[in-house]
Amino acid sequence: MKIPFTKMHGLGNNYIYIDGFQFEIKEDKIPEVSKEISNVNTGIGSDGLIMVLPSKIADVRMRIFNKDGSEAMNCGNGLRSVAKFAFEHGYVQSTEFQIEAKSGVVNATVQLNNDETVDSITIDMGPPILEREKIPMKTEQGNPHERVIAESFEVEGEEYSATAVSMGNPHIIFYVEDIEKAPIHAIGPLVTDDSRFPEGVNVEFVQVINEREIIFRVWERGSGITQACGTGACAAVVSSVLNGYVNKGQEVTVHLDGGDLWISWLDNGHVLMRGPAVTVAEGVFWS
Predict the structure, then answer these.
(1) Under which pathway is this protein filed (predicted)?
(2) DSSP-based three-state secondary structure for 116
(3) How far apart (Å, rounded) are the C-alpha atoms in residues 124 and 241?
(4) What share of the chain is helix, strand, coil (3-state, %, to 5)?
């Protein structure tokens, strides 16, 4: 099977994009194609596969598949790339439009260069989900409706302070004094599959620089360490507000391995994410 593709990245978080307006992959074949195409040795190499599709409830729809073939609920960097892809391919004409993801519909706004290509994208990610049972995160004690803020969390006999946030997909945030010493390799793969998270979880480590600036690293469920995670950056800013490190309503610069995002948790409860998306290559993949 010959599959036309576009490779794009948001701050190094790279996916293979398939134009579902023009090309169809059978439903039962998508997970295997995602694994094949993501393989750095025998495929193209990526963090996963994203299908750009028509939508019945929005202007465009995206489906995200991790490199292990599992389907994800949401992807902030993917949303920005889909916005760029949809606008530059003429599937939307307005600079403001809606994108449907598995987690729901979000609003996108593209900022253009002089040649009408997309320079940066702002996504209204909507309000964060903070109730334990909706993240979802199990509890043996306490109220399932409570928020998980600076809660004791044991991993391999070590105690950590954890805050949990969902941005349509679940995240757990740990704070460290030095991001270079964050135990991402040691506890990332353990926590992402921890039984306390029935749907798995993305694991973030955050170093707070000041009230407008944080450093962020991530272990993503289904993909492992990635250069960036847009929903994770949003969750990290929400968590930092809840823990009193940054102020609600202010734009916070999040330094990720792949570059910077600008995140605001607005007073109206919505989270805005602003950042770039880049087209890397186009071609045909033989599956």
Answers:
(1) Amino-acid biosynthesis; L-lysine biosynthesis via DAP pathway; DL-2,6-diaminopimelate from LL-2,6-diaminopimelate: step 1/1
(2) coil
(3) 18
(4) 20, 45, 40
Map out the domains of the chain with their CATH numbers: 2-122+275-286 (3.10.310.10), 132-269 (3.10.310.10)
Q: Which of 70, 222, 211, 201 is nearest to 129 (CA)?
A: 201
Tell me the DSSP string of 143-184: -TTSB--SEEEEETTEEEEEEEEESSSEEEEEE-S-GGG--H
Secondary structure element (H or E) that encloses residue 99, with its range:
strand 96-101
pTM of the model: 0.89
DSSP secondary structure letters along 193-232 = T-TT-TT--EEEEEEEEETTEEEEEEEETTTEE-S--HHH
pLDDT band at 139 (very low <50, low <70, confident <90, very high): confident
Residue 177 in marked binding region:
no
Give the model's pLDDT for residue 223: 87
Catalytic residues: 75, 229
Q: How confident is the model at residue 6 (pLDDT cuts 50, 70, 90)?
A: very high
Residue 4 neighbours by CB distance under 10 Å: 13
CA distances from 207 to 119, 177, 213, 216 (A): 28, 6, 9, 7
Say whether 221 counts as a known binding-site residue: yes
Distances in Å between the alpha carbon of 189 and those of 78, 132, 194, 201? 22, 21, 9, 10
Nearest-angstrom CA–CA distance, 129 and 140: 20
Angle formed at CA 233 by CA 231 and CA 234, multiple of 5 degrees: 65
226 is in an annotated binding site: no
- Whole-number pLDDT of residue 222: 85
Q: What is the pLDDT of residue 142?
A: 59
Using the predicted structure, report yes or no on whether residue 140 has a pLDDT greater than 80: no
Number of Cβ within a 10 Å radius of residue 134: 12
Residue of 158, 196, 194 lying closest to 176 (CA atoms)? 158
